[in-house]
Amino acid sequence: MACFSVVCNNGVFVSKENLVIDSGKPKSIWRNISFSYTSFCFPSLGIYRYNHCKTQNLFFSGHNSFRLIRNGRRNEVPSLAFQVCCKAPNGLLMRGNSGDKETQFGRRGSSNVRKRISLRLRPRLRLLAIRMKRVSVRSMLNGIAVFLRKNIRRVSLYSTISLALGMCYLFLKLTAVPSPKIVPYSEFITSLQSSSVTKVLLEEGSRCIYFNMNSKSAENTQSEEESSAGNDSIENLTGMAAREDSVVDGRQLQKQGLFKKISRPKTSTSAWMYLTRKIDHDEKYLLSLMREKGTTYSSAPQSVLMSMRSTLITIISLWIPLTPLMWLLYRQLSAANSPARKRRPSNQVVGFDDVEGVDTAKVELMEVVSCLQGSVNYQKLGAKLPRGVLLVGPPGTGKTLLARAVAGEAGVPFFSVSASEFVELFVGRGAARIRDLFNVARKSAPSIIFIDELDAVGGKRGRSFNDERDQTLNQLLTEMDGFESDMKVVVIGATNRPEALDPALCRPGRFSRKVLVGEPNEEGRKKILAVHLRGVPLEEDPQLISELVASLTPGFVGADLANIVNEAALLAARRGGETVTREDIMEAVERAKFGINDRQPSTIGKELGKLFPWVPSLMGKSDPRQDGLQGPLGYQTLS
Ligand SMILES: Nc1ncnc2c1ncn2[C@@H]1O[C@H](COP(=O)(O)OP(=O)(O)OP(=O)(O)O)[C@@H](O)[C@H]1O
Prior knowledge:
Blueprint: E1 3-7, E2 12-15, E3 18-22, E4 34-42, E5 46-51, E6 58-60, E7 65-69, E8 83-87, E9 93-97, E10 104-105, H1 110-134, H2 137-150, H3 152-174, E11 181-182, H4 185-193, E12 197-203, E13 208-213, H5 215-238, H6 243-255, E14 274-277, H7 283-293, E15 296-300, H8 304-333, E16 341-343, H9 359-373, E17 388-392, H10 399-410, E18 414-418, H11 429-443, E19 447-452, H12 455-458, H13 467-481, E20 489-495, H14 503-506, E21 513-516, H15 522-533, H16 542-552, H17 558-574, H18 582-594, H19 603-611, E22 629-630, E23 636-637
Parallel strand pairs: 11-14, 12-15, 17-20, 17-21, 18-19, 19-20
Antiparallel strand pairs: 1-2, 2-3, 3-7, 4-5, 4-8, 6-7, 8-9, 9-10, 12-13, 13-14, 16-18, 22-23
Helix pairs in contact: 5-6, 9-10, 11-13, 15-16, 15-17, 17-18
Bound molecules: adenosine-5'-triphosphate.
């Protein structure tokens, strides 16, 4: 066993297989040692942590050392980095890192923090280095090519957007000119009055007034500005200095050239040095003042470049907040978001064999299947294929399953939607989706459209102020009318609330065929249970179990029975069994009937006791007279 890191004078060392802590003290002192924190790093698996390792992992090895068998894979070689921290009963903290020069006892310092950071960092870097070694340029290029091929549309869209943004940025950068200094209007007037303004430009179509001052005044203004900047700087520097002092200091510092960094460049490339905004109704005075002082003034339109610049900036600043909104809108409106999910016949795994206990409904739907497949020549007698079949019944009776079975048996494209998917935020979107769905179905005829929970859009009109829902329903009615007589598209709707449907939807020519999918009787329940028990490994004969459960579950629908079987399998898995036993099934029935509780003896036990008084095992009793005959359901019977 090779040791690759030996830590310390009095300490901890690591081997490939396990961790050995050499306390350097007699065994008796460290007997109750327990690990408070241990972490390992395995190169291929990332970092593994075994927190609060129990003492059962700790073995004495030799006179004065302990061994922690690590739980990782045997063939893994732990990296150098790991940490052990254990507390001895006498309160001393023993801490050791694989890279430590020495193990510390009862001492925590800043070096510990550094060590801990390096301890975390080192394995990650090592891992990164290992991964980098595996990376080859060719495989990377291949990966990129595959990615590009798969996402060509997205990539081209994103690159166009980035290119456009890049061009905008370049344009803004190239056309950027140093902006003139903005001054208050009052300052402009004062400068005019003191005849320091040399040239004025009034921009047409805006309130901007550009002006230049003679160099002396400009310098004065600049120095004033600089000294005020100096003040700010000094205030920043000292933070405590009085205002007046700081002005003096600022000037001194300015003289010393310390403000070179913050002072404006003296030579401006801009044609105009100052900018102010016009005040309304003051034009008369302004013009007379300029005339009086002999100032050169003119007016000019905004330059094309500048107007382009400002338009671009406006557009970009508008689009930045608008983009997420537009994206949301696009997602809402996109046809890719259409609720029609086309399922190919090959994907269908449900057939009529999987639906039991609803024989009448099955017969009705089988006829539709035969018509779709063309095995019944209904046209010869002038009959028409029913356009819509409405499956009505309580929840969980198998309406959806029946529709899927129809599609599976007919072997035609099946478009399954939930009516709630047509309920949209935007008026007209639900109707558009209906139109879209029917268009696709028509193109793939013969086909089946299944609309689950039809009452979500098919409710009576005019009862609410929801215009969008009424529009959606109108569209559905129109689409169902719009089928040509030889168009082999069947719409199957399912609802639990037929009374809530709009009468127009149920009239002949639309959902003309109404099929009741009711609660199954005992025979039906037995058959449904047999379907669901098909794939479950049972300890006993599935038929016996089906009969037993069917007799105990009056009023249960297919979904309840499927749930019982699933619960029983889960219970069996929980106790680690290989097969599902009768007890599991009984407990699952009890859970389905009465919920999960701890009552003893169990309620179902009592019920079973009433039904089968000769059954002692299920009532939790052990009857000494157990030498009876086997009953028909596999229970002990008394002779
Ligand atoms: N007659 C049945 N035969 C076999 N399994 C059934 C039957 N009825 C229901 N099930 C089981 O119950 C599950 C749910 O049934 P399904 O979704 O078809 O009920 P539903 O009548 O459409 O309910 P809802 O009205 O609430 O939509 C099915 O996936 C199936 O496992």
